[in-house]
Amino acid sequence: MVDSGEIMKGDKLILRGLRFHGFHGVKPEERTLGQKFLVDVDAWMDLRAAGRSDCLSDTISYTDIYRIVKEVVEGPPQNLLESVAELIASTTLTKHHPRISAVRVKVGKPHVAVQGFVDYLGVEIFRYRSVDGQS
Questions:
Q1: Per residue in 54-99, pLDDT tens?
Q2: Among the four 17, 49, 91, 128, which has the fewest Cβ within 10 Å?
Q3: 16-31 tens-digit pLDDT
């Protein structure tokens, strides 16, 4: 089993500030009007071969992960951000088997009905291939 501390110190692909309109949430207005969602993804994998070869085939294109996030956020509605994040993480681990060893997914809602000022409210999950049974 891979030590999660070792994974977090390794190489990773980084996608920040992805913005999409989706219809996730438990309130009726969230399901009918939709809202903006902010997503960040880190995907841990060994990038040495790509660094040496300068070849896209030795890594994973950022656009592949971007596409997964877009499909999930703009796709069928989920009640919870936890479900949205889980779908992004599990699809990323499954579609890029076995290169990606772990993912971190942060999903935020910038427009929430709370008393006060917030940048966003959201969730952040970490999923590891060996722990979560992804293969």
A1: 999 999 999 999 999 999 999 999 999 999 999 999 999 998 668 8
A2: 17
A3: 999 999 999 999 999 9
Q: Are 89 and 103 in contact (CB under 8 A)?
A: yes
* Rounded Cα gap, residues 99 and 95, in angstroms: 10
Full-model pTM = 0.89
* Rounded (10°) angle between helices 62-73 and 81-95: 140
Q: 73, 72, 90: which is closest to 127 by C-alpha?
A: 90
What pLDDT does 135 receive?
Answer: 44
Catalytic residue positions, numbered? 109
Instruction: State the Cα–Cα distance between residues 46 and 34, nearest whole angstrom.
Output: 37
Q: How far apart are the C-alpha atoms of 62 and 42, rounded to whole Å?
A: 10
Q: Tell me the CA distances in angstroms from 4 to 10, 42, 93, one per residue in order.
A: 10, 14, 15
Residue 37 corresponds to which tokens in the numbers above?
Answer: 């969602």
Single-letter code of the amino acid located at 121: L
Residue type, 83: S
- The pLDDT of residue 69: 98
